Automatic annotation (TrEMBL):
KW Kinase (keyword) present: no
Region Disordered, residue ranges: 150-174
Coiled coil: none
Alphabetical keyword list: Signal
Residues covered by the EF-hand domain: 64-99
Pfam families hit by this protein: EF-hand_5 (PF13202)
InterPro entries for this protein: EF-hand-dom_pair, EF_Hand_1_Ca_BS, EF_hand_dom
Entry keyword annotation includes Iron-sulfur: no
Gene Ontology MF terms in the entry: calcium ion binding
Name under which the protein is recorded: EF-hand domain-containing protein
Signal peptide (from-to): 1-22
Length: 174
């Protein structure tokens, strides 16, 4: 999925990586645009199940995934105009990150600051129209891609039965 994207996206992703490295933050795997809304600070299948498996049966159906995404989008839209501004988008992410730090008994640190910076970068990526308004339709398009990337056996359910490819392998094919 690397070659067909706009050079600007690549540049933005590179900028995010560079700033993360410059601050000696723990290396975060390159965040592909398709994985933009992954759980705060979490990676992989476990984090995905933790966020979206609402009935805790060990698998995430498309209905569960879509319901949580929509709920999250609506909760983030604090002024209720149906779209997310950059501030709303980042605030929603920061809320989840804060909760996670609290749950882990950690204080905000350098990695925390970097995560917030990356959220700003991600907004520029997900807001494809560059109008400062992240729409539910834009979110749905990303969600679709995220789900299909994880549902590697293509049965419409994300579970441990889906062999997960390492991020590197995922970045190099399409
Ligand atoms: Ca479930
Ligand atoms: Ca809004
Ligand atoms: Ca599956």
């Amino acid at each position: 999925m690397t070659t067909r994207h706009l050079p600007l996206l690549t540049a933005l992703a590179a900028a995010a990586l560079l700033s993360a490295c410059a601050a000696n933050a723990p290396a975060t795997p390159a965040a592909a645009p398709g994985t933009a809304a992954r759980p705060a600070g979490g990676h992989g299948l476990q984090a995905f199940l933790g966020s979206y498996d609402t009935n805790r049966d060990g698998q995430v159906t498309r209905a569960e995934f879509d319901a949580v995404r929509l709920q999250r989008f609506r909760a983030a839209d604090t002024n209720g105009d149906g779209v997310l501004s950059e501030a709303e988008y980042v605030a929603e992410f920061e809320g989840r990150l804060k909760r996670q730090y609290f749950d882990d008994g950690k204080q905000p640190d350098k990695a925390y600051e970097n995560s917030i910076k990356q959220a700003h970068v991600r907004f520029a990526i997900v807001n494809r129209a560059r109008d400062g308004k992240f729409t539910a339709a834009e979110d749905a398009a990303i969600a679709d891609k995220t789900f299909k990337n994880l549902d590697t056996n293509g049965d419409g359910i994300v579970s441990k039965d889906d062999p997960q490819r390492p991020p590197q392998a995922r970045a190099n094919d399409d």
